[in-house]
Amino acid sequence: MLTLNKLEFSYGTIQTLHGISAQMLPGRVTCVIGRNGVGKTTLLKVIMGILRSSSGSIQLPHVDVTSFAANRRAREGIALVPQGRQIFPKLSVADNLRVGLEASRPRIRQVPQDVYDLFPILWDNRQRPGGNLSGGMQQQLAIARALVSNPRVLLLDEPTEGIQPNIIQQIGEVLRELVTERNMTVVLVEQYLDFVREFGHDFYIMNRGQITADGETSDLTEELISNYLSV
Ligand SMILES: Nc1ncnc2c1ncn2[C@@H]1O[C@H](COP(=O)(O)OP(=O)(O)O)[C@@H](O)[C@H]1O
Ligand SMILES: [Mg+2]
């Protein structure tokens, strides 16, 4: 479980997160949805510790990580798949995955085979430079890199953005496996609502740095969507 309590964040003088409180449960995909610019990416960076909240707290079941830097949060089991993937284009697939070993606890030296088992296409292409892969495969690589350390909490920032439909489906199936087989806590920032409905369990809607609605994805009404999501 991940518990956020009254998180506040400002870029300089511009306040971007206003008292964000939420609970993300293990074994469930919790979706954070909202229009562009409402603060979704900022929230994930604050959870990861790349940005530091000015007040509020972030708790895992046995530890309050609010004061921890990003690398220590990673050792506590939080991993982020950043928006835009941010893989290393000149490194091979295998070396991109080895970067993920840095966060492992206890320290492991080899990329676990189960990561390749989740994404067999990465095994088949393990010697290719990351930059030569299709966008969909790069996204799979970014997710796999985050999984190398076997996190308890996986944060994903718009993983379906610009990706071909068959790979979107494969990514959804992997998320489903992570929550059902490994009881992981998955936090999915996503604007693609069909994906949210198919693979998400709970949702929080963000608007201007605040949570304006929450519930189970089966209760995402047309009214909520037209108020907070349609352009
Ligand atoms: N590095 C930054 N410096 C200043 N403002 C930023 C920075 N990054 C994002 N913002 C602003 O913060 C707000 C929220 O951005 P972001 O978290 O990226 O939203 P979302 O992911 O929901 O599209 C936007 O108004 C954006 O322009
Ligand atoms: Mg974003």
Task: Looking at this protein, list some descriptive labels.
2 domains; binds magnesium ion; binds adenosine-5'-diphosphate; Rossmann fold; 231 residues; six-stranded mixed β-sheet; 9 helices; four-stranded antiparallel β-sheet; alpha/beta
Structure description:
With 231 residues, the chain is an alpha/beta fold. It folds into 2 domains: 1-20 and 47-66, no CATH class; 77-206, P-loop containing nucleotide triphosphate hydrolases (Rossmann fold, 3-Layer(aba) Sandwich), CATH 3.40.50. 34% of the residues lie in helices and 27% in strands. The chain contains 9 helices and 10 strands. A 6-stranded mixed sheet has the order 6-7-8-3-9-10, with helices on both faces. Strands 2-1-4-5 form a 4-stranded antiparallel sheet, covered by helices on one side. Strand 4 (55-60) and strand 5 (63-64) form a beta hairpin. Helix 3 (93-99) packs parallel to helix 6 (135-147). The protein is globular and about 45 Å long. The mean pLDDT is 95. Bound molecules: adenosine-5'-diphosphate and magnesium ion (MG). Magnesium ion (MG) is lined by residues 40-41, 83, 157.
How do the strands and helices of this protein lay out in sequence?
Layout: E1 2-11, E2 14-24, E3 28-33, H1 40-48, E4 55-60, E5 63-64, H2 70-75, E6 78-81, H3 93-99, H4 113-118, H5 120-124, H6 135-147, E7 153-157, H7 165-182, E8 185-189, H8 193-199, E9 202-207, E10 210-216, H9 222-228
Parallel strand pairs: 3-8, 3-9, 6-7, 7-8
Antiparallel strand pairs: 1-2, 1-4, 4-5, 9-10
Helix pairs in contact: 3-6
Bound molecules: adenosine-5'-diphosphate and magnesium ion (MG).
